Automatic annotation (TrEMBL):
Bilayer topology: Multi-pass membrane protein
Highest taxon, organism lineage: Bacteria
Keyword tags: Cell membrane, Cell projection, Cilium, Flagellum, Membrane, Transmembrane, Transmembrane helix
InterPro entries according to UniProt: Bac_export_3 (IPR002191)
Family: Belongs to the FliQ/MopD/SpaQ family.
Compartment(s) where it occurs, according to its Swiss-Prot or TrEMBL record: Cell membrane
GO biological process, one term: protein secretion
The name this protein goes by in its record: Flagellar biosynthetic protein FliQ
Any single Gene Ontology cellular-component annotation: plasma membrane
Length: 89
């Protein structure tokens, strides 16, 4: 395996991790900002108000995005296992 091939595998791995974690992190960011703005506007500083909606939305996002995450990681693992099988890794 050359340095270029190793770089490509590492680059593909980082991209797959970013793509797989992107939906959940994006939803958590958006919900967190919405709740923070709501708390700033209403001056309600309840701690459970920040956690419960965020956790529920993260679980819903995981349910919806699981097929996409699986396909992304399966594509990466197929590529790596093909490299291993061909003796390239």
């Amino acid at each position: 395996m050359t340095e270029i091939q190793a770089y490509e595998v590492i680059s593909d791995t980082v991209l797959a991790v970013l793509l797989a974690s992107g939906p959940v992190l994006g939803v958590a960011l958006i919900i967190g900002l919405v709740i923070a703005f709501f708390q700033a506007l209403t001056q309600i500083q309840e701690m459970t108000l920040t956690f419960v909606p965020k956790i529920l939305m993260i679980f819903l996002t995981l349910l919806v995005a699981t097929p996409f995450m699986y396909a992304t990681l399966k594509s990466l693992s197929d590529t790596v296992f093909d490299l291993i099988g061909s003796g390239g890794l």
